[in-house]
Amino acid sequence: MGEKITAAKAYLHPFEEPPISGTRGSGAVFFSGCNLSCVFCQNEEISHNCKGQEITPERLADIFLSLEQKGAHNINLVTPSHFTFPVLKALDIAKRTLTIPIVFNSSGYESVSTLKLWEGYVDIYLPDFKYVSSALSKKYSNAPDYFEFASSSILEMLRQVGDLEYNSEGILKKGLVIRHLILPNCYKDSIEVSRWISSNLSGDFLVSIMSQYTPNAKVSGTELDRRVSTFEYKKVLEEARALNLNGFMQQRDSAQSSFTPDFDYEGIF
Predict the structure, then answer these.
(1) Which end of the chain is more exposed for a tag (fewer CB within 10 A), N or C?
(2) Looking at residue 11, what is its pLDDT?
(3) Rounded to two decimals, what is the model's pTM?
């Protein structure tokens, strides 16, 4: 990606965690590009192929305000870190009148130094925590150092936003929500993710365990070419419950491609 903001969709997204999407939807802006190369990515069209339209910070600020006017509970920045400086400029413009929380929606593969630039702008951090195993993160995301960066970044995110806060509607105003996607044949690493969270984080935060993994053409014929089994799903949830992790446990029927948005430039032009 270049220096200019590139985005593929901005709309009221209904499929985030309940206290983020709420009843009216999260005002999600899907940025093009990603700092990972996950073979199973459901947003490959924009993350790997970089489909998108260049926009100015001024236009992005207008998009934020338009989403608020449409009823968005928050502004949800999906994979924004490689556009940090122009997006922060857009927030500086919009925040003169913007009143809803800002969500930083991330793969978790971030540097602490970059996250520090976002301090004071972000109300809710929504990172993935994909792996503990460097072998798995190298194999599936081309990032053998994923755990090193994700673990330190999540600690920094929690430091910045602190404990959970909700508004009168039960919608999250502030806090940390960590998401973990269970992968086929990787449930033991999922358990290690839960154990790390339990051992290293304190305070009030949420964990969202997701079973929505859906195979794509890139994993055809590999060990990832199936959905998560009932056995794998139950083993991960049993450990999360045993560790008293607070949050959400997604139903297995969510493993459908229909949950992936159509990146049709809605709300961008």
Answers:
(1) C
(2) 98
(3) 0.96
**Token duo for residue 247:** 């949050």
**pLDDT of amino acid 261:** 87
Q: SS3 helix, strand, coil % of the chain, rounded to 5?
A: 40, 20, 45
Q: How far apart are CA 252 and CA 175, in angstroms?
A: 26
Whether residue 258 is predicted with pLDDT greater than 80 in this model: the reply is no
Here the tokens at position 195 are: 């154990």
Q: What confidence category does residue 255 fall into, taking pLDDT thresholds of 50, 70 and 90? A: very low
Q: What's the average model confidence in pLDDT over 3-27?
A: 97
Report how far Cα 180 is from the mean position of its chain's Cα atoms: 10
122-126, 168-172, 178-182, 212-216 — which is least confidently predicted? Answer: 212-216
Whole-number Cα distances in Å, 135 to 143, 197, 268: 9, 20, 38
In this structure, what token pair is assigned to residue 104? 């930083």
CA count, 13 A, side-chain hemisphere, 172: 29
DSSP, collapsed to helix, strand or coil, labels residue 142 as coil
CA geometry: angle 78, 157, 155, nearest 5 deg: 130
CB 34 within 8 A of CB 20: no
Give the Cα separation of 209 and 201 in Å (integer): 16
Pairing of strands 5-13, 53-55: antiparallel
Tokens for 87? 């997006």
CA 264 – CA 192 distance, rounded (Å): 38
Task: Give the whole-angstrom CA distance, residue 24 versus residue 179.
Answer: 21
